[in-house]
């Protein structure tokens, strides 16, 4: 199956969801996520410092046994990776503020944007997309399921 009809269907549905007050609500959700980034950045710094202290306690001072060190290190590295992913996710309201307010205009704007920019915008409002199996060579929009971001 070619991606173009699926992309067009997704852009159309996103336009319908963001039309009118939907765009305002999405901007509000994204702005809330951006303000939460400061605390995540602080958590990331703290987790990196704890990992450094743990390594010093194990390698430098011998205060921590190997099994405990490996367990705590794995936990901290997982936390660090989660925070880094969270902070790297696109959270910019500037992607949304320039959109028209009508569904057709939003879909057209998404088509006109460079693919990377359009997909970054979609990640702000879409949690996931599932394409159900279908008949080869025939596009059925009912097969496209969109899970909207909270």
Which features would summarize this protein structure in a list?
150 residues; 2 strands; 7 helices; two-stranded antiparallel ribbon; elongated; mainly alpha
Strand numbers in spatial order across the main sheet: 1-2
Could you tell me the radius of gyration in angstroms?
A: 21 Å
Report mean pLDDT, rounded to a whole number. Answer: 79
Number of separate strands: 2
Helical amount:
55-70%
One letter per element, helices H and strands E, the order comes to HHHHHHHEE
What would you call the structural class?
Answer: mainly alpha
Number of helices: 7
Shape: elongated
Biggest pleated sheet: 2 strands, antiparallel
Q: What percent of residues are in strands?
A: 5-15%
Oligomerization status of the protein chains? single chain
* N- to C-terminal distance: 29 Å
Which parts are unreliable, with pLDDT below 50 for 5 consecutive residues or more? Answer: none
């Amino acid at each position: 199956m070619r991606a173009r009809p699926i992309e067009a269907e997704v852009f159309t549905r996103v336009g319908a969801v963001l039309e009118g007050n939907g765009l305002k609500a999405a901007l509000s959700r994204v702005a809330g996520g951006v303000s939460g980034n400061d605390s995540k950045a602080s958590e990331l710094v703290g987790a990196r410092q704890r990992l450094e202290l743990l390594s010093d306690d194990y390698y430098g001072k011998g205060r921590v046994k190997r099994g405990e060190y490996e367990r705590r290190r794995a936990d901290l590295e997982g936390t660090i990776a989660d925070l880094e992913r969270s902070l790297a996710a696109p959270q910019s309201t500037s992607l949304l503020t320039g959109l028209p307010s009508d569904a057709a205009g939003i879909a057209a704007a998404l088509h006109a944007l460079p693919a990377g920019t359009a997909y970054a915008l979609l990640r702000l409002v879409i949690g996931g997309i599932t394409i159900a199996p279908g008949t080869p060579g025939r596009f059925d929009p009912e097969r496209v399921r969109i899970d909207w971001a909270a």
